[in-house]
Structure formats: C-alpha cells, structure tokens
Amino acid sequence: MTQLWDFAGGIHPAENKHQSTALPIRAAGIPDRLVLPLQQHIGEPAAAIVSVGDRVLKGEKIADVTNGMGVPVHAPTSGVIESIAELPVPHPSGMNDWCITLKPDGEDQWTARQPVSDYRSLERNQVLELIRDGGISGMGGAGFPTNIKLRPPRDRKVDTLILNGAECEPYITADDMTMREQADEIVAGLKVMAWILRPERCVIAIEDNKPEAVEAMRAATKGTQIELAAIPTKYPSGGEKQLIQILTGMEVPSGGIPADIGVMCQNIGTAVAVSRLIFEGRPLISRIVTITGEAVQEPGNFEALIGTPVQYLLDQAGLQPEKVNRLVLGGPMMGYTLTTTAVPVIKTSNCVIAATAAELPTPPPEQPCIRCGECAEVCPMELLPQQLFWYSKAAEFEKAEHLNLFDCIECGACSYVCPSSIPLVQYYRYAKGEIRVQRAEQLKADRARERFEARQERLEREQQEKEQRRKERAKAAAEAQAKKKAEAEKAATEGDAVDERSAKAALVQQALARKKAKTEVAKPQAPAAEPAQEKPDLEALEKQLAQAQSKLETMQGMLEDAKAQQADNVEKLERAVAKNHDRVTRAEEALADARQQLASQPESQSTE
Amino acid sequence: MAFAQQSSPHAHHARPTSRVMLWVIIAALPGLFAQTVFFGWGNLINVVWCVALAMACEAAILKLRNKPIGFFLKDNTAAVTGLLLGLSLPQFAPWWVSGIAVVSAIVVAKQLYGGLGSNPFNPAMVGYALVLISFPVAMTTNWAEPALLWKGAPGFSETLSTIASAKQTAVDGWTMATPLDEYKHKIANRTAAEVLQHPTFGNGIARGWEWVNAGFLAGGLLLVLLRIITWHIPVGFLAGLAAMSLAFGSNADQYAPLSMHLLAGGTMLGAFFIATDPVSAATSHQGKLIYGAGIGVLIYLIRTWGSYPDAVAFSVLLMNFAVPFIDHYTPPRTYGHHKARRGVPSRKQG
C-alpha cells in the first residue's frame, strides 16, 4: 500500500461527474471546418508552413516552431487549407489569435506514418525529438511542451514519476473515461516516459471517487512495477503541488519546479498521446473532451479532433440552446467562460460545461470581508487569502507579495467558501497582473537608465580621448620643433657661424629688394586685376550660401522630427543647427562684403 | 447567444455572513436562557432593546452614508452587536445607559470606521467600556440578585419599569454585587471561607453565574463544531486566564480561585462570543492563540490588581490594538517555503 500524506485545506465541492460517465467515449467525427490555433502550448507560437489552398494529409505537419520553445501543429484530417487568419481562440479574455482553418475533404487520408517498433533501440534524445515532432504538450493544464518537461535540468534526477489521474475538478471525466477505456495505452505511454526518465518510482494517482478507473488501471498495471494510489477525494488533490505532497510528503519549493525535489507529474492524456505517437506514428491530433452541464441532453466524453469547434461537440451532446446560461471551458473551479461556441478544442481543452442559470447561479453581490478566515482554512497553499485580498484591494502589492501572493495556484477554494461572496481569485489575478506590469516597467526604466549612463560614460570617454589625442599631437609637434631646433643648433655649431650670418643678411636684402619692386609694379596693376578675380568669387560665395541655407533647413527639419519623437539626439542636432546657422551667417557676410567691394571698385577705378 | 461571463470559480458553496451571524445568535440562546432563569427578565429586555436600537442606528447611518440599507441590515451583524451588549450589561442598567452603549458601538466604533469589516475595535466592547467608565454607578450597582425567575425574582413589568426609569440605580432589594466584585473587595481582610458566606456565591462557585457561563460554553462549543469559529481564540483565552490564576492566585485567601475566574463574570461569553469577533481579531491560527492568550492574561491582571471587578471589555480592546502587530509576526508558513515570512516588507532602496 502506497503511503499517503495529506495537504492543507481543500474543499469537497459537489462532484457532478456521474452525468458524463454514463455513456462510453464517443467519436465526435469530422466537422465541416477545423480551426487550428498556432499557439496551443506554453512558449513561442508555431508558424504556418503551409499556404492557403494547399491540400494536406492527416497527420501532416502544418505549423512548426523553429525558434524557441514549442511544438508543431498537425492536420487532424486530410483536406484543404482554407485560411490562415485571426479567429476566436479559447482564452479567458475571449481574444482572437492566428489560426489555420482546414476544410476536411472527408477522405481522412493519412500521411506516411512511422511507428517505432522498439523505442528502446533508439537514443533517448531521438525519442524526445519524436515526441516534440508529434506535437505533444501537456494535456492536463497549461500545455507545457512534453519533450522539454521530459528533459529536466542535468543536475535534477527524477526519482518519482507521477501520472496524474486525480481529476479533482467537478464535472470533468475525460481522464476518468480514458483510464476506463484506454488503460493499456496509458501504461504503454507511461513506460516510454519512464524509460526516458529512469525514475525509481512510478505512481498512477487516482482520486478514490473513480473506482472503475482504479480497477481498469489496476488490471493494466498488473505485473509491472507501477504503483497505483487511490487518493482521498478532496479538491485540489490533482493540483501538481498538492498531488506531490500527497504521494511523497514533500513540497515543491516556492518558485521551483517538481524536478527540484526529484518528482515529475504527467497527465493521463499525455501518456496516451505518447503511446499513440511511438507505437502508431500518430501525432497529437485528437483528444478526449467532456461535454456536460444541464443544458445538454446527452452529456459524455467525445474523442474530438483538435480544432473541432465547441458548437459541433455541443450539438453532438444534444445542446438545448435556450437553457445555456454560462459556457465554461475547463472545470467549474478553474475553468473560464467562453464568449462564443465558435472556439475550437485545443490540446489542453478537457471539458466544456453548458450550464443552466440554476446550475451555476450568478453569485450574490460582494459583501465586506469580515476576516472570518474560512478562506485560510481551505487554502491548500497555506496562504492568508483574507490578508491577500485586503492588500490586493488596497493596491498594497508589496505587502501582498510579502504574504506570498505568487504562491497562489488560483484553485478557487477560497472564493468557493467565502461567506461574503468575494471573488477572491479575481483580486489575486488583478494584483499579480499589476505587479507583473510594475516589474516590466521597472525593468524598462532600469534599462533606460543603464543606457543613459552608458552613453554619458561613452561621451566623457570620447572627450577624454580627444583631449588625449590633442595633447599627444601638441607633444609630438613640440618634440618635432625641439628636434628641428636641435638639428639646427647642431648644424650651427658644426658649420661656419660667420658665413651663415652674412648669407642671412644677403637673403634679407634680396627679400627687401623684391618687395620694393613688387609694390611698385602692383600699384597700377592691382585695380585692373581685382575685378577679374572678384567676379567668379561672388558666384562661388552665392553657391556656398545656398548650400549652407539648404543644409540648415534639412537640419532644422531633422531637429523638429527628433523633438517630436523625443529622440535622444536632440541635443546633438541642436548643436548642428546652431553650427549651420553660423555658417549661413558667415556666408551671407562674406557675400555682402564681396558685393560691397565690387560696388565700390568701379568708383575707385573711375577716379583713377 | 450571449453567455454569462464570470471569473472562476464558477461553483460556490458558502454559508453567507447572514447565516453565520444567525448561528451566533442561536448559539447565544442557552446563555441568555440561563441568565433569564437565574437573574430575571433584565437581560432579555436588554437584548431586545439593544438589538432593536442597534438595527435602527445601523439603518440610519447606512442611509446617511448612502449605502443600501436592506443589503447591509440583512447581514445580521448589527443584531449580533446589540445582542452581545444586551447579554453583558447589568440586568437593571437603565435604558439610556444601554442606549449610549449601543449608539457608540454601532455609530462610532463600527460605522464611523467604515462599517462592517473595517472596524479595528470590537464595537460591542467599545460601547461597553464607554458606559463602564462614564456611568460607574449604573454599571456596578444594577446587577440582579441571583434569584430564580419563578421564585423571588422581580416580575417582567417591574423589571421593565426599572430599566425604563431615568434613575441610575435600581431597587436595592433586587440587586447585589457580582461574585467577582464581592470577592475582590472582601478578601483583603477576610478568609476565603468567610467571603464565600455571601449569598452571591450560593452553594457552588458563583450562584447562577456558573450556569450562565456553562450556557455560553455550550453555545461556544456549538460554534466551534459548526466551524463558525476556530478553537484557537477561546483556548488561548481560557489557557491564558487559567495559567495566570495558577501561577499567581493559588491562595484562595488572597485571590479569587480559578473556578471563579472561569465560571463567574463574563469569561465564557468573552471567550467564545466576544473575543472571536473575526473583524477585530488576529488572523492566523498562531496569531489567534496569542491574541486569545493576551486577553486571558489581561483579564486576570485587571481583575486581580486593577480597579475593575471584570475586564473582558478592556482586555479585548487592548488586544485589538495589538492585532496588526500580531498579524505581521504570525503568518503561517506557506507551502514550498522553509519558514513563514514574518514582519513587514522592507522597502527596497532606489
């Protein structure tokens, strides 16, 4: 018997599971259109590798992630790519995202499949690559790429591999029915994962409210080393952290991952997907979805192709549209409401609840918190929800963080029991969002400051280098001068000093004679020569002025743009404009001078 | 079709505040019944008067504050405050004394601080302490003599007219010092055996009072059983009081014995109904234990060495002051953390 531990808090909400376990899993068939979001996992979105109009075969890769973490998307059936556009996707915000729309041709024609008969003959990395290529991401919750999860950091050895079949959320029975009907595939997939990780312990955990599933798994694991743990039914026992605590008594360190304490959790559906990929060569193109709620007549589980619109599945389950009040994707504790039935089933969609108003009634209006502490009694993370609420509402995020806001798993147990009907989880999400925004802004501001400081430093350095160079040049020049002088002195000392002095005197005399002659000749000649020289000068000056003006204009334009954009080169541009302005003034002055001279010259000429 | 948009969780199964408060009222009935049996109609009349006035004050202030009156009145919290005052005031306290207590409880201690959930002090105890300090005569001389309702106690109409009169004191023959008062003031120059001769003690510990306390204990246990309160505050409270009594007051010729501390006066009412007001109490389990123990210790200190015979109101109010401090230093250890994060977040520099 597997030893079990208890986790703090927890609640026992009405299970509402029997409604959807009456019928076996039904094949949903092929809808008219399949809408395949490019992002169905945590990480980078995939990029389409097909074009509109392409015909694709079932299982063909149609989108892949080439850069960063992520897994490819495959065509769930054969057909033609109809569009690649932004369409509504399953998301709490009801947003649109890029999706490939596939129009099935009804032939359901497979692409070439490559099942692996003996995966043990492959390298572990090769199997991980196959899992990535098969588009497998966690099918229980967040959709973390399975190949990455199965490769924990080098220094982290996984001792315990847990297959999470707890399915603690009310209404959802997808894992329950999978365990009942596909137990062998689950075990086969688990064995592949265990082969990759080589854990010492392999446990399948199932809440004890699913005796049929426990029996089916017991039969399938007979004769293996795999442990089977029927854990007490208490929400949220299927939360990763809680399940690890139940099975090992250990806690995942805050901010860490289970591998930090040598544990890994995988989902039931993920195990089936791995098995089908390895042994059938079938990528992740379908999943089991529970369609339930009082607004459908035949609730149950469907094997649905990824991309099947929710409306199609609701119709198959006998939807009574007039009865639907709230449409929840996921469970009633952590799921989110849908705005439209057009959204497709994706790799992480496990349940759709078409609830009537009486089934999931609108909660009564929020009352003041009286700090009764019921929330703290049920919190599985041992937080103080009432204090977190107080600080979140008062926007005292620092204090909320201090009380470990970010350890909240948003299981909703606190809101479930709140006598004042306070949507506590919503307040925590708000606070977390605000803190994330603040952190991002802080990071941005820090970077800007670093950039500014680096720039200041660089400018200073450049200035210093300039100064340095100038000094070096001056020094070099002084040295050259000194050298020349020294050489001259050397020559003087070596040669005849008297000869040199007489030679110098002769040179001076010659120069004087030349100058005298020049002035005598130049006097009558100068006025005649000058106009001829000035005329082309005027043209050149005008050209210079025009150039300077146009340059000034462009500079001013640039400056204005820079100012409008608040760019950081405004200062530089301002200096440049000032410089150009001076240049224009100088050119104008020069031109004016030249013109004046030109105007006065004919006069002087006539007087001559 | 448009679907309802809600944030998770979508399922709720709460016991609304109004029902929680209703359970508190129900749980107080055994104590009230014992009070009526042993001390006459006084408490019952006080309860009715205080509850009615508390509801009226709440409604009036809600109207002034432009808040939905029905929505807040239906939470029954004003009724509980009135009830607690009615249960703890002297049986023959004149109507205007209890009235002042209720008005200051609801208007000042509760609504002026922001209404339900925002009051740092226990409203009923603010009202009680205010009238205790302001009208010491009315608050100490109006305790009914223990007499069975059907045997010697003043009748309903007599009680009502006494309460309705403007005088501070009731008829002498109907009133008697409380056991705690009597013991405290007589033990200085007498032995315990001599003191206990006084009829207020009866044959047991404190005539009538022991049954009243037993009634509130029973009701309190019901609240714990229903998980409306946790055991931490009452246990801390009683343990603190008992520990002090055992440590300092083992000599009955000097100090009131432990049995009297536990079963006379407002001990059980205080431990299960007053100190457990969640709004003004500490938050975590550890904090609740400390908070309760603090009240117990203070009660012993004031009863023994202070000038008041009983001290639930003062002790609760003093510990209310300490609640923010206690809360900062007693958070639980969160899953995945080595230890609890005590204290207040240190401001990051920069």
Automatic annotation (TrEMBL), chain B:
The keyword Membrane applies. Its EC number is 7.-.-.-. It comes from the Bacteria. The modification FMN phosphoryl threonine is found at T178. The complex is composed of six subunits: RnfA, RnfB, RnfC, RnfD, RnfE and RnfG. Belongs to the NqrB/RnfD family. This is Ion-translocating oxidoreductase complex subunit D. It comes from Marinobacter albus.
